[in-house]
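Technical annex, item 7. During the second reporting period the consortium partners agreed on a shared format for inverse folding records so that results from different sites could be compared directly. Each record opens with the tokenized structure and is followed by the designed sequence. A conforming record, contributed by the partner at site C, is shown below for reference.
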């Protein structure tokens, strides 16, 4: 149970003071008066029984206790802001029909969360959801069988379709655990294992092959796997190695103790996950759905991935329109 003097407002004031070192600037950020800012930080320090800021210095500086507490306080505030944005449910009460397609990369976690959020607002709406690989979802919205689609972007401009970029999903290499040394020749360590490829009917498979050609890499073709879980399962059993993305890797958590992920040992590349909207839809609905999806990606996919694979930071990220 929190001490009585630890309040959300106090944490926000502390974060603002830590960033600016000045009561006047913290007051401007938080919308409080300067006396109120001073009182909030006094209450917080009293509740914690520790000085968080050195008030004798200008600008104010964090004490050792303040630095340690700021890490936790900022994490708490970040999660609360994210939760608030997720709960700012879109106004979809005016919709009578919505057909939506989502790539199966999100089946495990994000799709149920997004659909739950949508359902809370669609009080009078007939809703249809389709999950499938990217090429099938893209073809469905091209044929106007869907109103909205969340899919990997092919980079093609589709007539009558508006694209809202959601996230940059960089390609990574996965190998059997213990196979690749921490430092050394990655491709050399995998020389006696075949590459496991995605099916060439899939957009991700075609994107990978195009990049290998750009890099002038001639890798013998032996296995072509149409299922992401099956591909990663085969890597976990030492059958081969593969190129995938963080989204593909995160879908197969049960294999993570037997698979290691690595940056590509050749020129990096990435794919873009986007929301596509048919042109007869007003901008408000797809824009709101896109922002909700970015929030969900940040908290449930990107943050856990970077915690597990810190080298993904800056590469695996959300994209603004």
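Designed sequence (site C submission):
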């Amino acid at each position: 149970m929190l001490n009585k003097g630890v309040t959300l407002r106090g944490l926000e004031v502390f974060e603002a003071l830590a960033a600016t070192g000045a009561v006047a600037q913290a007051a401007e950020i938080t919308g409080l008066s300067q006396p109120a800012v001073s009182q909030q930080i006094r209450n917080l320090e009293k509740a914690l029984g520790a000085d968080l800021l050195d008030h004798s210095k200008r600008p104010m500086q964090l004490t050792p206790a303040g630095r340690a507490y700021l890490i936790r306080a900022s994490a708490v505030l970040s999660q609360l802001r994210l939760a608030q944005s997720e709960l700012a449910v879109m106004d979809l009460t005016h919709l009578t029909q919505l057909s939506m397609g989502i790539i199966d990369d999100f089946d495990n976690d994000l799709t149920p969360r997004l659909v739950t959020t949508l359902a809370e607002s669609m009080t009078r709406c007939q809703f249809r959801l389709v999950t499938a690989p990217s090429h099938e979802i893209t073809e469905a919205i091209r044929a106007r069988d869907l109103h909205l689609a969340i899919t990997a972007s092919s980079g093609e401009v589709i007539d009558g379709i508006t694209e809202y970029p959601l996230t940059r999903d960089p390609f990574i290499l996965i190998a059997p655990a213990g196979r690749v040394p921490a430092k050394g020749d990655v491709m050399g360590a995998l020389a006696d294992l075949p590459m496991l490829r995605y099916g060439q009917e899939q957009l991700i498979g075609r994107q990978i092959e195009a990049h290998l050609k750009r890099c002038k890499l001639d890798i013998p073709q032996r296995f072509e796997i149409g299922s992401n879980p099956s591909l990663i399962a085969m890597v976990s059993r030492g059958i081969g190695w593969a190129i995938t993305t963080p989204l593909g890797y995160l879908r197969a958590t049960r294999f993570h103790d037997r698979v290691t992920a690595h940056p590509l040992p050749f020129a990096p590349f990435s794919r873009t996950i986007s929301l596509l909207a048919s042109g007869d839809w007003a901008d408000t609905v797809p824009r709101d759905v896109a922002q909700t999806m970015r929030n969900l990606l940040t908290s449930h996919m990107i943050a856990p991935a970077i915690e597990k694979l810190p080298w993904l930071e800056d590469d695996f990220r959300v994209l603004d329109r």
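The radius of gyration is 24 Å. The CA atoms of residues 53 and 62 lie 4 Å apart. All partners now use this format for quarterly exchanges.
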